[in-house]
Amino acid sequence: MAATECPCMGARRRAALALAVSFAMVLGAAGPGLAETATSPEQAAAEAAGAWTELRPDLFGDRELIEGTGTIAIDAPKRATDPAVVPVTLSFDPKMDVRKVTLVIDENPSPVAATFEFAQGADIRELSTRVRVNAYTDIHAVAETGDGKLYVTKAFVKAAGGCAAPAAKDPEVAAREMGKMKIRAFETDDPAMHEAQLMIRHPNNSGLQKDQVTLLYIPAHFITDLQVDKGGKTLFTMTGGISISEDPSFRFRYGASDAGPFHAKASDTEGKTFEKTFDGGQS
Q1: Which of 95, 153, 186, 267 would you label with 210, given CA atoms 20 to 30 Å apart?
Q2: E strand spans, 161-208
Q3: What's the distance, Cα to Cα, between the start and end of the chain in Å?
Q4: Which of 259, 261, 258, 254 is nearest to 279 (CA)?
Q5: What pLDDT score was predicted for residue 38?
Q6: b/e map of 59-79 (b: 16 or more CB within 10 Å)?
Q7: How confident is the model at residue 6, as a pLDDT?
Q8: Parts of the chain with a pLDDT under 50
Q9: Which residues are CB-neighbours of 91 under 8 A, at least 6 positions away?
Q10: How many domains is the chain built from?
Q11: Strands (E), 174-261
Q12: What CA–CA distance (Å, rounded) separates 107 from 102?
C-alpha cells in the first residue's frame, strides 16, 4: 500500500493537495508575514468543511452521523506547537456503550489516522494519542455505539508539515530500539477507574519524510495493528496509519477489572511483530 496516497482520495482531492503544497512553498519563500496572512480563519474553516464533505461518504457511506455532543468529545490544541506531535484526547460517555472510534485528520494525505475498537466490558472512558497534522484541518472523531449508531464531533487544528517533518531520532538509534515497549500506571480520583499509558518505540515513518543526508524519501514503515489486553482479556485494538506520530503512545482510562498483567502486541508494515507481557502491571 502506498503511504502517500489514500484510496478515498479522488483525482480532484490529490490535485488540490499538490496545489496546496506548491502554494505553501511559494509562501515560505516569500516570508513568514505573507504566509500568516494568506489564508484567513474563515477560508481555512471553509476548506476543511469541503474536505469532510468528500471524505464522509467514502468512509461511512450513507449512514447517518449524529451530532456527538454528550457522547464523544475531542480535545486538541487550536494551534499545535509541533505539527509532527499533536496531542489528541477522546472522551466517551459511559452510558453510550461506545465500541468503535474512527479518528480522521481531514487534510492529511491519508486521512484516517486510526480506528480503535473497544472490547465489550472494557469500559474505555478516555483515550489519548499523538498525531501528525499536515495542514490546517478539522480532526473528526466518529464513535459507533453498541446499537450501531454513529456519533461525530470535531476540532479545528492549526498546524502544517507534520507528515513530512524529519524524524526526531537518529535512524540507527530508532532501528536499535524498535519494538521496545513500556507501560505506566496512574492513580485516579475514582477507585472504580484505572489509567495507563502504553509507549512503543517505532519510527512510524510516513513515506513523506526525507533522509537528511541523501535527501531521498524514507519508505513508509509504521505500526498497522495493536492489541492491548489486561488479565487475559482484550481492552482495545487499533488499526493505524501514517498519521500516528513517531514512537506511538496511547494513554487510556478504563473501568474493566484491573486484575492480571497487561499484554501488548503490535505489528507493522514490514511484517514485524512486537509483543510483551508486563508482569506487575508496570515496566
Answers
A1: 267
A2: 181-186, 194-200
A3: 34
A4: 261
A5: 57
A6: bbeeeeeeebeebbbbebeee
A7: 40
A8: 1-37
A9: 72, 73, 74, 75, 125, 126
A10: 1
A11: 181-186, 194-200, 223-230, 233-240, 249-254
A12: 15
Q: Looking at the domain assignment, is residue 30 inside a domain?
A: no
CA 123-124-129 angle, to 5 degrees, is: 170
Structural domain of 267:
39-281
Asked, for residue 21, whether it belongs to a domain, the answer is no
> What is the C-alpha to C-alpha distance for residues 43 and 267, in angstroms, rounded to an integer?
40
Q: 168: helix, coil or strand? A: coil
Residue 170 falls within a domain, yes or no? yes
In this structure, what CATH number is given to the domain that contains residue 66? 2.60.40.2470
Q: Alpha-carbon distance 47 to 20, whole Å?
A: 11
Q: Can you give the pLDDT at residue 212?
A: 87
Q: What are phi and psi of 134, to 5 degrees?
A: -95, -20
Per-residue confidence (pLDDT) for residue 264, from 0 to 100: 98
The whole-angstrom separation of Cα 179 and Cα 177 is 6
Can you state the angle between helices 41-60 and 11-30, rounded to 10 degrees?
Answer: 150
pLDDT for the residue 258: 86
CA–CA gap between residue 48 and residue 59 (Å, rounded): 16
Q: CB count, 10 Å around CB of 167?
A: 19
Whole-number pLDDT of residue 208: 97
| Domain-embedded: residue 130 | yes
